[in-house]
Amino acid sequence: MSNLEQQYQSVVARIRDAEADAGRQAGDVSLLAVSKTKPLCMVEAVYQLGQRDFGENYLQDAMEKISACENTDVRWHFIGQIQSNKTRPIAENFDWVHSVDRAKIARRLAEQRPAERPPLQVCIQINVNDEASKGGVDSVADVLALAAAVAEQPNLNLRGVMAIPESSDDIATQRRNFAAVKTIFDAVKQQFPSCDTLSMGMSGDLEAAVHEGATMVRIGTDIFGARQ
Questions:
Q1: Phi/psi at 61 (nearest 5 deg)?
Q2: Which of 1, 4, 2, 75 shows the shortest CA–CA distance to 221?
Q3: How many CB atoms lie within 10 A of CB 52?
Q4: What is the pLDDT of residues 100-125, one digit of tens each?
Q5: CA separation for the pair 33, 49 (Å, rounded)
Q6: What CATH number should be reported for the domain holding residue 37?
Q7: Around 11, how many Cα atoms within 13 Å sit in the side-chain half-sphere?
Q8: Burial, 169: exposed, middle or buried (Cβ in 10 Å; 0-12, 13-18, 19+)?
Q9: Confidence at 64, pLDDT banded by 50, 70, 90
Q10: Range of 191's domain?
């Protein structure tokens, strides 16, 4: 077994263990393998292990991988901040976007989504700790307003919310931040019942995220190793 396979299977086991510890059903939480900056060969190797969802946030790097994998059933997720002048390639090539944080971006993605492709699956990014270095909206009212703007677009499918809380090694802090995101998610789901995705949790805090209700965790380092 290669190191990459060992690391991937270890992450899958951590997710299943966290589900059990939280009293949740096995398979409640899906894995998004964050392959940004990593070579195509690593994506292909993890694909062969059964992984289908991959996350990218550097467009040029992502486009090369997407082109190479166009005849596969990989689902590509854009997880980075979105500049207005970059919406077209995202709309044309990705299956999911996790980082919509303003109505203008939602409109551009909808307008530029090719007619022959299914609706783009969208999560709204929440800036739960109001950090200046991160994108996202930070109040329930603003999230609900943006959710309504996304939901009215014909080529977008509102799926839920995403968050990257401030980094902390303290489990109590991790869980408190994730619980705050879950509260906002529940408010969105109440108005938009089709929302089913709470995208939160990374290599260092996935257990806390699963305990607080995450349905998708985004793991890069613990699968592919540290960024070069």
A1: -65, -45
A2: 4
A3: 14
A4: 999 999 999 999 999 999 999 999 99
A5: 12
A6: 3.20.20.10
A7: 30
A8: exposed
A9: very high
A10: 3-224
Residue closest to 181 by CA, chosen among 205, 194, 164: 164
Helices 140-151, 171-191: crossing angle, 10 deg rounding: 50
Structure tokens given for 54: 């991959």
Phi, psi at 205, each rounded to 5°: -145, 20
What region does 39 belong to: left with phi over 0, alpha with psi -120 to 50, or beta?
beta
The tally of domains found in the chain comes to: 1
Structure-block tokens of residue 82 = 């979105």
- Enter the pTM of the model: 0.96
In a 10 Å sphere around its CB, with 0-12 CB exposed, 13-18 middle and 19+ buried, how is residue 163 labelled?
Answer: buried
Measured CA to CA, the distance from residue 135 to residue 90 in angstroms comes to 17
* Cα 118 to Cα 73: distance, rounded to the nearest angstrom: 14
Which helix (H) or strand (E) segment holds residue 198: the answer is: strand 197-199
Band (pLDDT 50/70/90 cuts) for residue 132 is confident
H runs (alpha helix) in 69-205? 87-93, 103-112, 140-151, 171-191
Q: Average pLDDT for residues 37-50, to the nearest whole number? A: 96
